[in-house]
Amino acid sequence: LVTALVGGTVADVYTGTWTAANVEIESGRITYVGPRQPPDGADVLDVSGKVVAPGYIEPHTHPWCLYSPSSLLEVAVPDGTTTLVYDNLFFFLAHGVDGLRSIVDAMNGAPAHVKWVARISPQSAYEDEAERFAIEQIAPLFAWPEVVASGEITNWMSVARRDPRVAAGIAAAKAARKRVEGHNAGASYNRLNELSAAGISADHEAITGDEALARLRLGMWTMLRQSSLRPDLEAMLRGLAPVVDSARRLMFTTDGAVPSFYAERGVIGGALRIASAVGVDPMRALQMATIDPATFLGLDEELGGVAPGRRATLLVLPEIGEWRPEVVFVDGEIVARDGEIVALTPQIDWPAAPRIVAPGADAFAPLTGTQPVARYESAVINRRVDREVGPGDLQAALVARDGSWITQGVIESFLGDVAGFATTATTSLELLVLGNDPAAMARAAAKVAELGGGFAFDNGWSAPLEIDGLIAAGGFDRALEIERRLTFEMGRAGYPFHDPLYSLLFASGDFLPELRLTPRGLLEVKSRTVLQPARRLR
Amino acid sequence: LVTALVGGTVADVYTGTWTAANVEIESGRITYVGPRQPPDGADVLDVSGKVVAPGYIEPHTHPWCLYSPSSLLEVAVPDGTTTLVYDNLFFFLAHGVDGLRSIVDAMNGAPAHVKWVARISPQSAYEDEAERFAIEQIAPLFAWPEVVASGEITNWMSVARRDPRVAAGIAAAKAARKRVEGHNAGASYNRLNELSAAGISADHEAITGDEALARLRLGMWTMLRQSSLRPDLEAMLRGLAPVVDSARRLMFTTDGAVPSFYAERGVIGGALRIASAVGVDPMRALQMATIDPATFLGLDEELGGVAPGRRATLLVLPEIGEWRPEVVFVDGEIVARDGEIVALTPQIDWPAAPRIVAPGADAFAPLTGTQPVARYESAVINRRVDREVGPGDLQAALVARDGSWITQGVIESFLGDVAGFATTATTSLELLVLGNDPAAMARAAAKVAELGGGFAFDNGWSAPLEIDGLIAAGGFDRALEIERRLTFEMGRAGYPFHDPLYSLLFASGDFLPELRLTPRGLLEVKSRTVLQPARRLR
Fold first, then answer.
1. Where does the pLDDT of residue A169 fall: very low under 50, low under 70, confident under 90, or very high at 90 and above?
2. Which residue, A364, A378, A437, B279, shows the most beta carbons closer than 10 Å to its own?
């Protein structure tokens, strides 16, 4: 059976022009684009006056910010973002290669094209990192057809100094003709040269037009980010205005935004709306959302354009420059209409996560005297201040999920007078506990353990995150509701910034300045010095 | 040791801009591009006032038109064409996988980047084609790092009708994340849709701007050809003018031109000069010669731009828009200066070719009475005319190199009153014999056999082609001299067109209209009817 979209304007991202053409679809693929009328018996959709565009591509996201790889599609697909590249990190860490494979398999049944990156190193250093990310473990993942790149290497010093294990991972990705994603946040121009020289193919960490331009010039495919944590797209596009038309290798990313961001702004559609607002030519913007990432990912023979042989993954847009699709096709099937998904998202059979063991109150005995205190200056950046611990400071701890070790620290300007709060929503997949009362901290941790992961204030709000302690079971709306409540409760507890979820996730992320709670201990990131090693609990 | 190019203008093909920057090179790769001064002890080349550009890429050529894979570099490298993609066809046919491998190995030592395509079907149908091009034979070639695509599929009907062997070859190339080159000469718009739908990634056979535009729109990477046989670049660029700046996926190719063409015009440099003459923006033209083909070929992390991590394969150009390099670097070494190669080209240990066996005069007994006569209308196109054979017609024969079979035909408007002429320079690798005197034809054939391949007029000029009967041993100059003499001798013998070498090469090429001498017999190409089967000789 032939489906035909007749009478529309096709977005020809290959030549950068808009052209009147009919589109024929058969068995999930485009079979014809041009002037002819559809064959007798075709299922004809009149798209006169409308635009037929390729589905948008999100080349870099983390499908675990309360939403799951499946529930994220509830907002992505109606937005027109029909191809998503997912980070494998937490699934690989929590469930190993077999668990990851079952999740990838499930997502192959999605009403979208879900691709993956495979990490070659974690976001937070682990004692057993070399074993978990052994090249024999990692290299075979690059042969998976779903894996399109190696995942961002957050510890870019390991790239610059040519750490042998990281270099072997980069080489394995390249040998499989796959890309190598960097994470070059804050890297100087000279450092960017070293990172490009070491094989980094792409970066998404520019925050100004000049930073983006430097990355492009040095040969990196450059993702312009508009995330909840870092909404820098407008500034970057203004800075790039002189080259945006002649440049290639530009893309948009939302980099794993929080649920409310996606609910309110869409995924790549949101980035396109910003591009339009800033005055980027609609065709150029669309190329950045389609054929440029498809080419980057080595998917341009399958996706990213309206041409024969490609998947029939298409958007019907009301007019040029209006990015909200009226109809979304994936593989020739209508999967969303007028902002609502009409296809089923996959059921993932989540592998069971190990039980969480919360320590008792004595584990949380407060640090006193002069300490390196983490003074928060933004949602995710803190500065080290060495001083006497005083009232108003918060004790913080990262605890192994199995209760075997604890890393303690002191933070300020993060929450107010909170007795005890705990969560498993951390990039290191461990238990983060905050508060000023050891008994309350232990109770909050015990509550999170009882929930099987989630958020818990001592004597207050709690919510389970059933999947790996990070993801809410069920649909996107549940993730959204939990995030909104978390934001409310954190604000009520004195949290002063805009992104409480990422503040928690990144409290243990050793890729951000300046003090981090890590499995190895309290880390000063820049010098990579462990100021206080993790303590064994049993 | 660091080499530094200081004070120049770098062609930044990534952003499409020209930028003042120094370039540092170490161990054959670019390590830095930017404002800093070179380190103490660096080997500094002052390029003030000059342009530093990536080497040009020729994505599609046939390295056997009298020159060899090695001797072609004598004209390519000084031209600035430092990456060449070579067709494997004749080497694979003549020497099998092992012979091909030894040639590929030798070319890995070239002062240029030599990559290869692997054919999945021949240019002329063979009886044993299925065996020679069995998928078990072909698929492993796509794992070779030097192989970047499957070679052009001249019989595009086999693609359109989804011939299972061809489809398997296409699938094997794509599974290895490599491109599939088409040869869609004369395909209608509807047919181009089918070919794109069947997986053709690229085409080089457009001859007008509209044809090129159709290919782009239908998702094919499009090579704009300027060859000795088909110098269509200017017309195509004029036709494409409205989209050339916004289009991606455009490249230049010379498609295996004859030696004199390269000697007089260069390789990709010649195409760039035409682009400039037609008014294409120099940066856009340079992108078509560098980053666009590098991206097409999956080589953009190694080649095609001036950025860290890339091979230090660079040109020093005197100014923007002047495409003749003053200095050519390959992997950090100076390999050409002011139009002269200064590096050694590889010695290929050519595998021995089987002995040629010429038949006696009786094999050439003339065809008489009413025959399908091939009337030549251009260097390579003929039309079938059924009529009585008369004076002025030429008897033609394709003979197996081992003398085992013969295909006979009659041609007109090709040569004048020639008694006997023979050559092994044919796309089917067989012996082509022309003339009006069977004894003279046999003598010419015997002479070619004695030479071990080459050209021979009975009682006149002859020249050996020592390598596979197709390639002149020695340097490029010898190939050039033979071509010039061939052109002179063919002209003297009444040849009326512009490209005698291709006329001979393609006399047995069953991808061109209308009558061809093939191993299967005299073929009417369009209907694929064998009008007269090949005859066994022993």
1. very high
2. A364
Determine if residue A453 is left, alpha or beta; phi over 0 gives left, psi from -120 to 50 gives alpha, anything else beta: left
To the nearest whole Å, the CA of B307 is away from the closest chain A CA by 5
pLDDT tens sequence across A462-518:
999 999 999 999 999 999 999 999 999 999 999 999 999 999 999 988 888 899 999
Would the pLDDT of A456 be above 80? yes
Given this model, what pLDDT does residue A406 score?
A: 97
d(Cα A338, Cα B342) in Å, to the nearest integer?
65
The answer to whether the Cβ–Cβ distance between A193 and B29 falls below 8 Å is no
For A124-146, write each residue's pLDDT tens digit. 777 788 899 999 999 999 999 99
Is A14 within 8 Å of B217 when comparing Cβ atoms?
Answer: yes
Is the Cβ–Cβ distance between B193 and A33 less than 8 Å?
yes
Widest CA span in chain B? 84
Instruction: Report the C-alpha gap between A197 and A190 in whole angstroms.
Output: 11
Residues of B in contact with A189 (CB under 8 A): 34
Indicate the residue of B36, B295, B309 with minimum beta-carbon distance to A197: B309
Cross-chain Cβ contact B219/A14 below 8 Å: yes
> In this predicted complex, what is the ipTM?
0.94
B198·A15 Cβ contact <8 A: no
Burial string for A192-217 (b: 16+ CB within 10 Å, else e) reads bbbbbbbbbbbbbbbbebebbbbbbb
pLDDT digits (tens, 9 = 90+) for B332-391: 999 999 999 999 999 999 988 889 999 999 999 999 999 999 999 999 999 999 999 998
- Residues A12, B217: C-beta atoms closer than 8 Å: yes
Write out the two tokens for A182. 């960097």
Q: How far apart are CA A439 and CA A422, in angstroms?
A: 12
- In 3D space, the residue among A20, A24, A42, A41 whose CA is nearest the CA of residue A33 turns out to be A24
Contact B278, B238 (CB under 8 A): yes
When CB atoms are compared, the residue of A14, A196, A301 closest to B216 is A14
Residues A308 and B184: their CA atoms lie apart, in Å, by 15
Q: Do the beta carbons of residue A290 and residue A57 sit within 8 Å?
A: yes
Report d(CA A361, CA B233) in Å as an integer.
79
Residue A241 has pLDDT above 80, yes or no: yes
Minimum CA–CA partner of B31 in chain A: A197
Measured in angstroms, the CA of A123 and the nearest CA of chain B are apart by 24
Q: With an 8 Å Cβ cutoff, are B307 and A213 in contact?
A: no
Cβ contact (<8 Å) for A301 and B189? no
Please report the number of interchain residue pairs, chain A to chain B, with beta-carbon separation below 8 angstroms.
142
